[in-house]
Amino acid sequence: MKRVVISAANPRPPAGETDWARLDALTDEEITAAAQSDPDCPPLTPEQLSRFKRVNLIKGIRLKLSMTQAEFAAAFRLPLATVRDWEQERSYPDAPARALLTAIARDPETMMRLIGGEAA
After folding, report:
1. What pTM did the predictor assign?
2. Are 79 and 42 within 8 A, CB to CB?
3. All domains of the chain, ordered by start, with CATH?
4. CB 61 within 8 Å of CB 105
C-alpha cells in the first residue's frame, strides 16, 4: 500500500531575515497595493486570467497525492474508467462523488483507511 503523507507543518521557509509578524499584520488592501506596485510581476488582469486553463479537480487531487490514475482508483475503490473520464472531462462527478472527492482532498489517509482500498 502506498503511504500518503500530508504535513500540516507551516509551509514557510526557515526563519531568516523575513519579518513574518509584519507580513501577517498586513491588510488585504495593503497586500493588493504592494502586488500592484511590483513592476517585475504585476497581478494578472481578469482577461489574462481567463486565458488560463484550470487544473481538473480530480487530477489536482491525484497529483497532490503523487498517485497514478490506477493507484488513485484502487486506493479509493473507484472504477479506473470513471477516474479517466472525470479527468478527461468526458463525464463529471455527481454530488455524492464530489463529496467523496472533497473528503479525499481534505484527509486522504483517513479516507483511504475508511474506504479500505489499496493502492496499486
Report:
1. 0.56
2. no
3. 20-50 (no CATH), 57-115 (1.10.260.40)
4. yes
